[in-house]
Amino acid sequence: MAWTREDICKVAALELKDGYYCNLGIGMPTKVANYIPDNVNVTLQSENGMLAMGPFPTKNEVDADIINAGKQTITELPETSYFDSSESFAMIRGGHIDLSILGALQVSEKGDLANWMVPGKMVKGMGGAMDLVAGVKKVLILMEHTTKDGHPKLLKECTLPLTGKAVVNKIITELGVFEISTDGIKISQIAPDVTLDEIKSKTSGRIKD
Amino acid sequence: MLSNKTYKNANEALHGILFNGMTILSGGFGICGIAENLTEEIKNSKVNNLTVVSNNCGIDGFGLGTLLQTHQIKKMISSYVGENKLFEEQYLNGELELEFSPQGTLAERCRAGGAGIPAFYTKTGVGTIIAEGKETKFIDGIEYLLEKAIKGDLAIIKAWKADESGNLIFRKAARNFNPPMAKAGKICIVEVEELVKAGELDPDHIHLPGIYVDRIFQGKYIEKKIEFITLREE
Fold first, then answer.
1. Chain B residue nearest residue A88, CA to CA
2. Looking at this predicted complex, what is its ipTM?
3. Would A89 be classed as within a structural domain?
4. Which residues of A are tagged catalytic?
5. What chain A residue is nearest to B79 in terms of C-alpha separation?
6. Per the domain annotation, does B83 fall within a domain?
7. Among A63, A135, A162, whose Cβ lies nearest the Cβ of B127?
8. Neighbours of A6 (CB within 10 A)
9. Which residue range(s) make up the domain with B73?
10. Between chains, do A72 and B230 touch, taking CB under 8 Å as contact?
11. Partners of B98 in the beta sheet?
12. Is A71 close to B29, i.e. CB distance below 8 A?
């Protein structure tokens, strides 16, 4: 059986190493925080200007001035610090963040990422995604392996406008874990009961043997 | 002797400042840390043809979103404009111009504008449509693109506390774009929750020194709005 979204988050959580500073994107990446092992100490950065984010608040803890980059209410921790947006992106651009976890519309075999725009439909904007992929040490993508109508999202070349060129290191989908290498997409883990043939049939980028 | 930077309200603080076609820089992230009193008064003034530089454009009916309702904005420079149906409508029918700038690039363009740096090289956006028409350069084997600084006629800022000389302290994540925008405005007007006398703030705790601030007033805040209240189970 292929992985559920929860499984994907659990597998992704294993990528968070003790002492890491991480930035988690909106949606499924945010949920990875729920599965960080107890013995692993990770500091979450929020690009709107907060380092060391706590969990969502209880009703009594809600504070309009404490939000994450998804504009959701959040709490602070004893080690929290706040700073302005230019400082926040100095951290990101300057390579001080160890890992960024984001969603994707398309990823190419060379690690190009498209996740911010579908021409002809409404364009919401890239937010901090272009800065993150250009600046952090490692970029991990969580996504469904194919589009809703079954088209591959792991491609030879992205057809949608790029967020960054050659920026993705690793991708986790319901079918497995994939690494971008110099000679194509390397399969590093296959989800239970998924076959290599299924992966190949749902991927149009070059898979490394 | 301190020069007098303090004003009674948004209306007084904006007196003689607004003109059609001006560029306004707005602090805030979503609707957190936005200058809602100043925005309301800019709406009332009916000034139009505005270029607004702000990470977002408020939400429908609140913050900068209200200036869309009154068709006062000609162009937005932003990184993210979701959560705003009216924005989408005006953009798609060609009424509203939009320049996307990646969030970190936008913050740095404003910081640079206030720091006397006309442009800077960044990796952000290399190989994307953001790089189109921009100068690129390889430095130590890595490709960068040149981004120009932003300056504005007016910065509208929200802080938590200010003293009479304009020294500012922000509160928690409401700081966000406020300091870089404040620095890049020819005139910077700040609304605060609490205005105190000089000497009441610890000089070591000032987030933005008063040199960047021209006018200050204590705003009216009935209820701080929240875009998405998200709770954990108790």
1. B104
2. 0.96
3. no
4. 47
5. A127
6. yes
7. A162
8. 12
9. 10-118+149-217
10. yes
11. B76
12. yes
What CA–CA distance (Å, rounded) separates A164 from A112? 6
**Which chain B residue is nearest to residue A124, measuring alpha carbons?**
B82
Looking up residue A31, the CATH number of its domain turns out to be 3.40.1080.10
Chain B residue numbers with beta carbons less than 8 Å from the beta carbon of A27 are: none
Show the tokens assigned to B86.
């009216």
- Over residues B34-60, mean pLDDT: 96
| Residues B94, B71 contacting (CB under 8 angstroms) | no
CATH of the domain at B19: 3.40.1080.10
Tell me which residue has tokens 């971008």.
A180
Give domain status of residue B56, yes or no. yes
Our count of domains for chain B comes to 1
Chain segment A112-156, per-residue pLDDT in tens = 999 999 987 767 899 999 999 999 999 999 999 999 999 999 999
Region label for B199, one of left (φ > 0), alpha (ψ between -120 and 50) or beta (otherwise): left
Residue B19 lies in a domain: yes
**First vs last C-alpha separation in chain B:** 54
For position B3, what pLDDT does the model report? 63
Predicted TM-score of the model (pTM): 0.96
| DSSP-assigned letters across all residues of chain B | -----B-SSHHHHTTTT--TT-EEEE--BTTBT--HHHHHHHHHHT--SEEEE-SS--BTTBTTHHHHHTT-EEEEEES---S-HHHHHHHHTTSSEEEE--HHHHHHHHHHHHHT--EEEESTTTTSGGGTTS-EEEETTEEEEEEE---EEEEEEEEEEEETT--EE--GGG-TTHHHHHHHEEEEEEEEEEEE-TTSS-GGG-SB-GGG--EEEEPP-S----SB------
Structure tokens at B137: 């350069």
Please identify which residue in the block is written with the tokens 């303090």: B6
Picking from B83, B180, B228, the nearest residue to A84 by CB comes out as: B180
